[in-house]
Design a protein that fits this description.
Elements lengths: L9 E6 L6 H15 L5 E3 L7 H13 L4 E6 L5 H10 L4 E6 L14 H14 L11 E2 L1 H22 L1 E6 L14 H5 L3 E5 L1 H10 L6 H10 L9 H18 L5 E6 L4 H6 L4 H9 L4 E2 L4 H14 L4 E7 L3 H7 L13 E6 L15 E4 L1 H7 L10 E7 L3 E10 L5 E10 L9 E6 L3 H10 L6 E5 L4 H10 L5 E3 L15
Parallel strand pairs: 1-2, 1-3, 3-4, 4-5, 6-7, 6-8, 8-9, 13-16, 15-18
Antiparallel strand pairs: 10-11, 10-17, 11-16, 12-13, 14-15, 14-17, 15-16
Helix pairs in contact: 1-5, 2-3, 3-4, 5-12, 5-16, 8-9, 9-11
């Protein structure tokens, strides 16, 4: 169950230019509500706005109804001043949409001119420096506007979540992982708070949770989902899960939602007695991402993906190339899109991906961190405190690989690339999958490398690039990169290569 993201209650307010027929806006608003169909998360404001007094009444009405997001609907030309003041006076994301004309047989009293009205609306929003979501083509029939509103829901959920989010961190980034650069001004620029803590703070709190009476309940949850490969480890991991949950509750302060970015190696497993990956995966499945290696913007990106999809996400290294023999045997010519070898790569992390995102046929289980075992435990010994990773191949299906990030100069930038996890056995370790993204090789070189992105990317399960782009655009991210199709050159791409 996702516990750490907002519920959206959407309101719709119709506006009407006073020299147009008000009933045109009202009847068109009613048709949208009927087309929307789900009345549990949509409130129809009875006040049609023609002037500033109407605007104040309408905003007060939707606030009393508990709305935290709005669609302002131009059923006719619309009054540009009061309709834009709605966005100024309402505390939440606002979308603007407009009515298409309905029939050639009613273009006198039945003509609304909202197509023209959107231009004035947009101009006035710009004059007032007000943010709003305007769909790609914001003029439509009742069914089309209802669809725009449904597309707005995940965007609104994300924007509301970010406005009430705190990122909590433990420990500095591990040595040689400074690639996950995290200048925090970018967080403040988009309204996100941050609290940075020491690993010692976490260890002290963890020890204070010894013998917590709730530990047995967490152990039962872990056993029920198949996380009991090392039964003697479960009390420690359950104790750690409660430590993080309690820390979030006690430290979120004025914020409603929390995401973590925690140091997980090299000192962590020896000090705590286990790897934190499995616990991190469980919290991610509940809507509380825990980013690896104190990747603050990785955790932020995970939270954005969680809000957009309303479902668990993961954070992975853009890790290794797919061997040519694997490509030739299992990928080449076998899928709807004819992927080239350099369209493919493997995404990996030690074991933070939620169980529900791993393929059952790969027999996911709690195991040990092979690399950390080599580094931290005696050679040829049985794994001890390096146990605690959740390992298996990622389930096949559509994905969106993305990241919102503050670069080395502190400027916010983002990328989005849609693709899929292929149903190909990885024959490797960790939480890992074979990914395929059209024109990934060029994207890798001319976005990820050229723009100096780190190795971590968030993975949302599904194609949600449209919503992510809208969110990043609303937040004012000046550079939103994507994987350009063949024939469209990147700025720095050699045309003779």
């Amino acid at each position: 169950m996702m516990k750490n993201i907002p519920n959206v209650k959407l309101g719709i307010i119709a506006v009407s230019r006073d020299c147009f027929i008000i009933s045109l806006s009202e009847s068109r608003r009613a048709a949208i509500v009927k087309a929307y169909g789900n009345y549990t998360d949509l409130y129809e404001c009875p006040v049609t706005v023609e002037n500033e007094i109407d605007m104040l009444k309408a905003v007060e009405d939707v606030k009393k109804a508990g709305c935290n997001a709005l669609c302002v609907f131009l059923g006719n030309f619309g009054p540009e001043t009061p309709e834009t003041l709605i966005a100024k006076n309402f505390d939440g994301p606002v979308m603007y949409a407009a009515a298409a004309e309905e029939t050639q047989n009613n273009l006198i009293d039945g003509r609304g001119d909202a197509y023209c009205g959107v231009l004035n609306c947009s101009y006035n929003l710009g004059l007032r420096h007000l943010k709003a979501v305007i769909p790609e083509y914001p003029v439509g029939t009742a069914d089309e506007v209802a669809t725009m509103m449904k597309d707005f829901i995940p965007v609104a959920r994300t924007l509301i979540g970010l406005s009430k989010l705190k990122v909590i961190t433990f420990g500095p980034r591990p040595q040689d992982f400074f690639a996950c650069n995290a200048p925090i001004k970018g967080l403040y620029d988009i309204g996100v708070e941050i609290q940075e803590n020491s690993e010692l703070d976490l260890l002290v709190s963890y020890k204070a949770h010894a013998n917590d009476p709730r530990i047995n309940d967490i152990i039962k949850e872990m056993e029920a989902e198949g996380g009991n490969a090392f039964p003697e480890m479960l009390p420690r991991m359950a104790q750690f899960e409660l430590t993080l949950l309690d820390w979030a509750e006690k430290n979120k302060g004025a914020r409603e939602y929390v995401v973590f970015a925690n140091k997980c190696w090299p000192a962590f497993p020896e000090a705590f007695g286990f790897e934190p990956c499995y616990v991190n995966s469980r919290l991610a499945s509940k809507g509380i991402p825990v980013a690896c290696e104190v990747d603050i913007y990785g955790g932020l990106s995970e939270y954005i993906g969680t809000c957009v999809t309303g479902a668990p996400v993961t954070l992975l290294d853009i890790n290794n190339s797919v061997p040519a023999d694997m490509y030739n045997e299992s990928i080449k010519g076998k899928f709807k899109y004819d992927y080239k070898l350099n369209d493919t790569f493997m995404g990996f992390h030690c074991g933070n991906t939620p169980m529900c995102r791993l393929a059952p046929e790969s027999k996911p289980a709690v195991k040990y961190q092979l690399i950390q075992h080599r580094l931290l435990e005696p050679k040829d010994s049985k794994p001890d405190f390096t146990r605690g990773t959740l390992e298996g191949d990622l389930a096949a299906g559509d994905i969106t690989f993305f990241r919102l990030h503050a670069n080395a100069d502190g400027q916010l930038e983002a990328y989005i690339a849609q693709g899929e996890v292929l149903p190909v056995a990885t024959r490797s370790f960790g939480g890992i999958g074979v990914f395929a993204i059209p024109e990934m090789g060029r994207f890798y070189r001319h976005v990820l490398i050229s723009k100096h992105y780190p190795h971590h990317g968030a993975v949302a399960f599904g194609h949600v690039g449209k919503a992510l782009y809208t969110v990043f655009d609303y937040l004012g991210i000046p550079d939103i990169a994507y994987n350009k199709p063949a024939g469209q050159l990147y700025v720095d791409e050699n045309p003779f290569a």
